[in-house]
Design brief:
The protein has 15 helices and 15 strands. It is an alpha/beta fold. The strands form 4 sheets. An 8-stranded mixed beta sheet has the order 4-11-10-9-8-5-6-7, with helices on both faces. Strands 12-15-14 form a 3-stranded antiparallel beta sheet, with helices on one face. The protein is globular.
């Protein structure tokens, strides 16, 4: 069952550490089935309760998952190991449309903004006890949120959207609690939730966002939190419409203690309006990052929410990194103030490429989705086969398994750098790899 690896230990912590070391070193692979608790207890000559406690520790650390009678196994993306061990390698000569990255040609130059921020830091050195949020950054961010109808609330700056999601979940939930997540949804979120010892409850989506019936079902089943991507949803490109927002707010008002987290990572790269849900529940958080519009290496996001949530996040941040560097915050302020990114142009470019691929696929009888953002989702009957055939044809696409829990198979294609000629050739390759299919939804 475990190949040549032998789990060791007498106490629960020792057994858990033995498994965790093996996963981290690669001796136990993602998906590897672990021995039944009684069987392992007999091998180690310990009480079965000791093994049960060890497996519980591993679940709470995001190393393993348990699926009823199918037993326990190493998670597909275990929290204890590096991402390099599970990424899909792109062979030389193969066009990479799997990465989810923005087009470098649409990103602004960073040197002038950082030079100005550094000069300000030289004039006014930032020392311990300095304000954690640059006042001008807070002013601009709040003004943008006001324009989009995001409720007023205190602000804190964090290191990206996923950092915000993690901090907000940790501020309110405890291991064993359930979180309703979009399915298909952002792979990193689907990894993060169980890594925190939380349970995922999948919520189906369509082009207009999460399905209200599924959200109601998840909340009735005990989900204590709901994570929603307002637009440029990854991987499907869904965007919450005004009508869908009204329906979701109605559902959330039935469960006012639900922790609502909204991710607007598509800000300044999308061409559809935001329809926020914030305010429908007692505790809420709304986060905007700058990675997609200004560059993935700018690890900065602005988080707002109800006073209790933001205060908990801010307090825990003080005990860890303390704050996000003011030099980075001031550089972002300069990028915003100088209009370094023409949001309308960027959104139009991504929209043109996205729509062109969807239309090219439709002409070839292939259904695809992508209402906003830089990704297109293509439902397929055989995900593994489609990915392999496309790789053989010279195209590396992202397998849908990376983004789904119970949703049907699919592949994700990042359109951000595609040219018109490439779109035509890629559409031919996809049609050949998956064949024409009737329209399919996400659920």
């Amino acid at each position: 069952m475990l190949g040549g690896y032998r789990i060791e230990g007498r106490r629960a912590a020792e057994i858990a550490a033995s498994v965790e070391r093996a996963v981290g070193s690669g001796e136990l692979d993602p998906g590897q089935v672990l021995p039944p608790m009684r069987e392992l207890a007999a091998q180690l000559e310990v009480n079965p309760n000791t093994v049960a406690a060890a497996y519980r520790i591993l679940r709470e650390r995001g190393v393993i998952e348990t699926a009823g009678r199918r037993g326990s196994r190493v998670r597909p993306a275990p929290a204890t190991t590096g991402r390099d061990s599970i990424r899909v390698d792109v062979p030389e000569g193969v066009r990479d449309v799997a990465g989810g990255n923005p087009d470098p040609a649409l990103l602004p130059p960073l040197a002038p903004a950082f030079a100005e921020a550094a000069a300000q830091g030289d004039r006014e050195p930032v020392l311990y006890g300095h304000v954690a949020v640059d006042p001008e950054l807070a002013r601009i961010a709040r003004s943008d949120m006001d324009a989009d109808g995001v409720p007023d609330g205190p602000l804190v700056v964090v290191s990206g959207s996923l950092d915000a999601v993690e901090r907000v979940l940790a501020a309110h939930l405890k291991p064993g609690d359930s979180v309703a997540v979009e399915d298909p949804g952002w792979g990193r979120t689907l990894d993060l939730v169980p890594a925190l010892g939380l349970r995922t409850l999948p919520v189906g989506i369509d082009d207009e966002g999460p399905l209200p019936g599924d959200v109601r079902g998840a909340l009735a089943a005990g989900a204590r939190a709901l994570i929603v991507t307002g637009r440029a949803q990854n991987p499907t490109g869904a965007a919450v419409s005004a009508a869908r927002a009204r329906a979701l707010r109605s559902v959330l008002r039935e469960h006012p203690e639900t922790l609502l987290i909204e991710d607007d990572h598509g800000h300044r790269i999308v061409d559809v309006p935001l329809n926020p849900l914030a305010g429908a529940t007692r505790h809420w958080a709304f986060v905007r990052s700058v990675a997609k519009a200004y560059g993935p290496d700018l690890r900065l996001a602005v988080l707002t929410g109800d006073a209790v949530t933001v205060d908990r996040v801010r307090g825990r941040q003080r005990l860890g990194p303390g704050w996000v560097g003011l030099i980075l915050q001031r550089a972002v302020v300069r990028l915003w103030a100088d209009g370094a990114v023409d949001a309308r142009k960027v959104a139009a470019e991504y929209g043109r490429r996205r729509d062109a691929l969807i239309e090219a696929l439709a002409r070839r009888g292939v259904d695809a989705r992508g209402r906003s953002g830089m990704n297109v989702w293509v439902p397929v009957p055989d995900e593994t086969g489609a990915v392999a055939r496309l790789l053989h044809a010279g195209w590396a696409v992202a397998p849908g398994a990376r983004f789904r829990l119970s949703a049907p198979p699919g592949i994700r294609i990042t359109v951000s750098t595609l040219t018109e000629e490439e779109i035509r050739r890629l559409a031919d390759a996809v049609a050949s790899a998956v064949g024409p299919a009737p329209a399919r939804g996400y659920v």
